[in-house]
Design goal:
737 residues; Immunoglobulin-like; Neuraminidase; five-stranded antiparallel beta sheet
Length: 737
Amino acid sequence: MRSLARIVLPLIAVSIARSQADWAINLPVPMARAVHAAAYDQKNKQVVVFGGNVNGGIIGGTWLWSPTSGWQRPSLTVEPSARREHAMAYDAVRNEVVLFGGRVSSGYSAETWLWNGTSWRQAKPTTSPSAREPHMAWDPSSKQVILFGGWDGSRRNDTWAWTGSNWQQLKPTGIQPPARSDSCMATDWKNNSIVMFGGWVGGFISDTWIWKNGAWTQVVVSGPSPRSEHAMAFDGTDVVLFGGDSGAGRVADTWHWNGSTWSLKSPNPAPSKREEHTLTYVSDQKYALMFGGWDNPDGHMSETWRYSGGAWSRLTPVAPPGHGTHAMAHDPALGLTLLIGGYQDIGMGADTWAYQSGLWRKLTTSKSPPPRVEPAMVFDRVRRNFVFFGGLGSGSTHLNDTWLFSGFNWAQATPANAPTPRWGHSMAFDESRGTTVLFGGRNGSTDLSDTWEWNGTTWKQLQPSPSPMARHDSALTYDVARGELVLFGGWNGSAGFLSDTWTFKNGAWARMSPKTSPSARSEHVLTYDRVRELVVMFSGEDRNGRQADTWEWDGKDWRQRQPVHAPERREEAAMVFDEKLGRCLLFAGWDIGHYRDTWTYGSDPAASSVLYVPACQGSAATAPSLGVSARPWLGTSVDLVAIGLPSPNTAVVLLGAGRTSIPLDAIGMPKCVLATLPLATFVAVGSGGTAKLPLPLPNDTKLIGVMLDTQALVVAPGANNAGLLTSNGLELTLGMK
């Protein structure tokens, strides 16, 4: 037959071509953090967030928030170094965000950086405040960025102004605010001034100060309780203060400053108590944007809230807190992914979360497994329940309890036999045997190499030989196309990181010998892509540190992919295949802190086929139908299969681009419809009522997303006046694995 490429290449202009397999983030969210800094870039209409502190220490990185696009992380070649407790303010004269100081890895910083909307550059002022953790805001009266006080090993009360190229120390007359740290300054646009409240002087304070026309004035007025690490910003009407740390602990109160008095508000809903967050005035939208913060037991936060008209509204959807070493599994019937356990910022997780239709929600259950890290969970496709086993509990208790989740509740199983207590083991559901298989793990300082099987009632230890080396933190999944489990990598206390690939089939392990293999690693994730029929591996830690590479296993060899997008490097993530989405689903993990991002991986569009317009039968015994033998992946060959053919088992296959629905009654084919205008036709002759037409698909990325419409015109003597019948229409969308 003629080359398919010659037929379809002219159609590329109307194709929906996108990309090969790639990662996509469900909703970009900065890593949960505190003591970061933020400012609103009025010219470019975006909130700029930089740095902060996460569970693992100080971080850098620039994030942008816009009312239209939400959170985005730009790709930058030059940025300030990682830091915390720095300050940022927008210079409305020069249309630049000014960043100063903070705590860096080597101590306090006195650097000045400028953001122009697309890039950072470091300023080189000849005079500068001392290296410190400062307070800063824009002064509308003098049209300057004003810096006050802060902490450089001692508390300060000096006042500085940024001229655009240099810092100038001011000598305001009259009374000065006492030296302080962990205070907050905000621009009061209504009153053309800066307001500063509270802070820490060896204890919490609650004084209110106004900066205007080059002088400080204290306003003695009742208001918020003494506090530090709170946040303030204008909201279009007043200056709003939220939260902070106080003598009573962290608070979640909302206050308004109108220029002369404070008033307590009671909005509902409202953010939870916190400190070390940011509030930023989004001037063109006239609301205040809050991000991040810290509390105990929640740890670092990554919520985004808007405050406008006296009301708080949450802008980012509910999601689990940052996790690592958690367990996930997927129920295909419900299209639901379940998450439980793992490390969080503070302590171990015990909450149960569900991901369904693109959203996370926290489930309320009457019973639940105790908190733990490094457990394992699978979905039992025979008994329709989730199977959860083991892990490391509080007090470093090694667990070997078995829990089942169904009907949106947990129940502890009481098997007659069970594997020994362990953590870091691997589990997968063996669809060919209808059982859950568990391998390895660690108990105390001992790595394990035993293989167990759960049949829905009890555990049974298997005795396969050979068997993989003892290990923990490996990854295991079921390869549907080849009917076997696949295990890769892990950590052995003597050998270190491992890079061996094993399969488990019919109760026996077999070591594979791939020509190419990922680096030896542990804490990676592995799942089977049921659309692309490949095992997908991502991330982990190897001898060079945490990784962000993507690999695929085809049953014989590993292939490293080079997706355009990818999650940041990490270990301790969890990944499943979401059958409703038709994509791999990855959540969270750990690098310098816990991520709480949700990613998917797969081809977009995936190779697929869909039926349209019905076949016609005439007086024949059956109506002919047209299908395809496999998904139409580029670089493969599929068969177009026509069945239900009367003698002489002959069909003319029409190949076109675009659906039609043209009645053929007028030419002697009642109730028959032409489904596409053919660009090419091919004759297929078969036997036994079936005819096949081979359809080779070029390995050409230009054809990704091209849609081909096909139909079989079937020779059926006597079925109608024309002696011809039409099959259903069949539309193929070409994809690239």
